[in-house]
Amino acid sequence: MNSKKIKRVFKRRYSKRLIQFEQLSDQTSDNFEKNFIKRLSRLEGVGRFTSVWILGIVVLIFLVILQTLNLSNYFQTLRPVPGGNFDEGILGSFTNANPIYAETNVDHAVSSLVFAGLLKYDSKNQLVGDLASGYTVDSSGLDYTFVLRPNLTWQDGKPLTSADVAYTFNLVKNPNAGSPLFASWKGINITTPNKLTVVFTLPNPLSSFANSLTTGILPSHLLSNVNPEIMRTINFNTISAVGAGPFSLTAVKVKGNTPGTQQEIIKLTSFSNYWQGKPKLDSFIIQAYASQNNMIDGFRRGNIEAMSGLTTVPSGLSKSSIIYSYPLTAAEMVFFKTTAAPLSDVNVRQALVLATDQKAIVKSLNYKTVEVDEPLLVGQLAYDKKYAQASFNPVKASELLTTNGWIIGSDGYRHKNGVALTISLTASNSKDTTISALLLKKQWQAVGAKVNLHLLSDSDLQYALSYHNYSSILYGISIGVDPDVYAYWNSTQADPRSPFRLNLSEYSSPSADNSLEQGRTRLDPNLRTIKYQPFLQAFQKDAPAIGLYQPRYLYISNLHIFGLDSDEINTATDRYSNVVNWEIRQDKFTN
Predict the structure, then answer these.
(1) Do 578 and 123 touch, CB atoms closer than 8 A?
(2) Is 292 domain-assigned?
(3) Could you say which residues of the chain have pLDDT below 50?
(4) How many folded domains does the chain comprise?
(5) What residues contact residue 242 under an 8 Å CB cut-off, 6+ apart?
(6) What distances in angstroms separate CA 499 from CA 388, 450, 496, 502, 545, one per listed residue?
(7) Which helix (DSSP H) or strand (DSSP E) does residue 263 occupy?
(8) What's the first-to-final CA gap in the chain, in angstroms?
(9) In percent, how much of the chain has pLDDT > 70?
(10) What does the pLDDT look like over 87-119, one tens digit per residue?
(11) Residue 514 belongs to a domain
């Protein structure tokens, strides 16, 4: 085959292959457009579909995690845990932590935390052992034998023994020491048969004696060489006190340059060897405020967790603030000075009792309390409702006054023999007391008495009380759990020579005196109840005072204090009855 023929054959084959390639290319292009380009629009739906599934998976994972956390919280609870520093503000000043000299609210608070007594009141206001595990009384009612708990120590590590107990109360008995407790310990003999036993021998039976043994015990190894005449002024009482209570004194700091701004800060640290065990709080800090406004401001700023010493709840407190209102075993009463006219007239006193709307006064307080209608408290041993004072009856009050020659004059007041029935009423200028005093004035004037009201500062009121410089006075007296009210109503306690002169009404009744003396010397509760009846009868007939209500102790906190109970207490410091178990922190625990 020649070369030309070969070229033609090759050219035809090439042309054919080229045509085939172009056809294949067109076919491929058609297929690509058909199977890829035209299906691209479907990818948007696929993307949305894929995104929804991915989002669903994410949400599912989140819900599983959330449910797991919720289930974890469901099986966990918040519980109090030990630790933390507690700052408490108290209205007043710090002068002396020594329990035989403590006078101010701050003094008593520090003393109660640093020192421990033989006995204390528990959260139910029952007298229980503190340093003493218990005590017995012999059949004569004269010998009280106390047994100390074993292995007691002072906060400096030294052992505490019966010698410390004997030293403390012998110091109180020493007139050179100048303790306010001196009068109540006269004639009591103290012996120590061994290191854990102390015996108190009384000159006469005294059923309420055990209640006086809550006084803190002092360390004889630190104080026995100190002259009693200078005991009140030594550094031990303020900056270097050593006790056996739940907290030890570690620092005292004074801030402020003026009386209105001065503030003392007393730091107390938990005592690990306290007989009940180390307190759950790490430290207890008391901040003493001279000004009520400064204390409230410190509370609002969070400088303190609690406030003590107020009589009313300040306005504008946070909703999270917790109000503790403790009924006190005390009596708010109007005391009539029975030795001076016109209140020396029993008919006038009885008329004023009838003219007093006790329920209206209690209602004005805006807090729950218990009415006081006789010299003993409701529920107390020997209390009997049949000896309650006369109920509110202004019509009967007016009739009684008229019958006894007190006639309404042209001035609207009653007169007898040309003398107006004028009553002077003295009271504190605090909010609650002022409201009560104003109500009393209105009620008494409604039956024709002319009432002059004298509202005094705390210092002026104490002066009036000390010198009985009043005609009638609205005041609260501490009674306690025991019904021994001898100091308030026995005629010997009205004598100007009496150390305290607590018979504010200057009441004198031979039958009441005899009843009070016999009642306090009987140990059997049933016999005591019988012996007190003549006193209650005489009080009801003679009306030396008007009972109003049991006052309260107010405690305000900005957090929940676990272990702080709110039962009836005798004094403000009884709030510390369970302080060893106070807790302010919380943590989560699995059930």
Answers:
(1) yes
(2) yes
(3) 32, 36, 40, 43
(4) 5
(5) 154, 155, 156, 219, 222, 236, 248, 249
(6) 30, 34, 8, 9, 22
(7) strand 263-270
(8) 106
(9) 87
(10) 999 999 999 999 999 999 999 999 999 999 999
(11) yes
